[in-house]
Design the sequence.
């Protein structure tokens, strides 16, 4: 019996830079608390342009989790946070009742012609925390556990695995690992988490006789043993955790267990209610509410 429940290949779209969306999908809406999964790039940007910049936009009911493989991004939010994100860092922003942020490509990255590539995930906040006060936490790469398991190099971004625990603050049981496997190396995916998936960033790996190419998200059966063997040097992500506690509605940048709450957020952003969605200091632009 295969340990693979679904194979998701996603679809790529251009929003000023190429983005492959893996979650939500027709095959799986969520994996553990993860409700949204974008693979950004790889891409480089011309100096003196604003290509790749994401202007200020709002969120409710979720935490954004940004992780880069190459390049850099500058995060700014309505709490006054200003943070450069570099490869290996974890940038964790909990929107709660409402936050606004921007993500821009630093000019030095453009000038160097550096390639930007990374992942942005959304984690649904538990219902008890959906209306919490917003918060921002940044964890430099060096503060996150890095260790070897059977020849695989692991970077533990969130949760507990292989006897190590990440310092990243989460709101529910969450697993998030970046791994590099050399050709022929086998890694067993931790089975103690209720929901799990594996994403191949570069390279390829075999799981239960199924070859997983780059850009593939394999959602695993609950509790099933899963051994990944790299067919070449491979970078992959392991993600999962406890299931979302109830149905979530997603509309644009809003996540909530209540459709009515999303409607109030839409109205607040459209009317630029500063008590709900304050301005981001230093920013003068914003992304308008879309029509649909």
Sequence:
């Amino acid at each position: 019996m295969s340990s693979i429940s679904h194979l998701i290949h996603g679809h790529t779209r251009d929003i000023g830079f190429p983005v492959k969306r893996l979650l939500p999908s027709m095959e799986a809406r969520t994996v553990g608390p993860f409700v949204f999964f974008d693979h950004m790039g790889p891409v480089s940007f011309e100096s003196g342009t604003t290509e790749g910049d994401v202007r200020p936009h709002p969120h409710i009911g979720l935490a954004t989790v940004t992780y880069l493989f190459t390049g850099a991004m500058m995060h700014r939010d309505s709490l006054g946070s200003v943070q450069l994100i570099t490869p290996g860092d974890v940038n964790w922003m909990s929107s709660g009742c409402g936050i606004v942020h921007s993500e821009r490509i630093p000019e030095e990255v453009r000038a160097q012609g550096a390639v930007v590539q990374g992942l942005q995930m959304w984690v649904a906040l538990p219902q008890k925390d959906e209306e919490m006060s917003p918060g921002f936490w940044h964890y430099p790469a060096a503060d996150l556990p890095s260790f070897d398991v059977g020849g695989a190099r692991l970077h533990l971004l969130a949760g507990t695995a292989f006897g190590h625990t990440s310092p990243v603050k989460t709101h529910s049981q969450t697993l998030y690992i970046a791994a590099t496997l050399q050709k022929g190396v086998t890694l067993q995916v931790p089975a103690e988490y209720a929901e799990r998936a594996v994403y191949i960033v570069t390279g390829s790996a075999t799981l239960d006789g199924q070859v997983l190419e780059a850009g593939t998200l394999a959602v695993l059966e609950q509790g099933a043993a899963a051994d990944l063997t790299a067919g070449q040097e491979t970078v992959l992500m392991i993600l999962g955790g406890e299931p979302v506690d109830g149905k979530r509605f997603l509309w644009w940048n809003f996540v909530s267990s209540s459709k009515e709450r999303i409607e109030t957020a839409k109205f607040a952003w459209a009317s630029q209610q500063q008590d709900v969605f304050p301005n981001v200091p230093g920013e003068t632009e914003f992304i308008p509410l879309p029509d649909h």
